[in-house]
Amino acid sequence: EKAVEDNKTKNAALKAENEEIKQRNAAAKAEYEAKVAKYETDLAKYKKDFAAYAAALAEAESKKKQDGYLSEPRSQSLNFKSEPNAIRTID
To answer: Polar residues bias: where (predicted)?
Structure first.
């Protein structure tokens, strides 16, 4: 009788522990799925931005032999020393 009661008590404790583990797993899975969704969104944005960058780079490469374009693709920073005819104005 005592062994049966001890086993019932242990089973109840194990069931409670299993429920707690199930809840933690469900919370972790929800958090993981949210992070995966954010990753997928960020990846799609990155791919779109990279495609636009690659297209702009290809266009710059194709026009580098034409008059009025740089001989190599470069970023256009606000460095007035590289453009001596530039005029600084602030509106």
So the answer is: 73-82
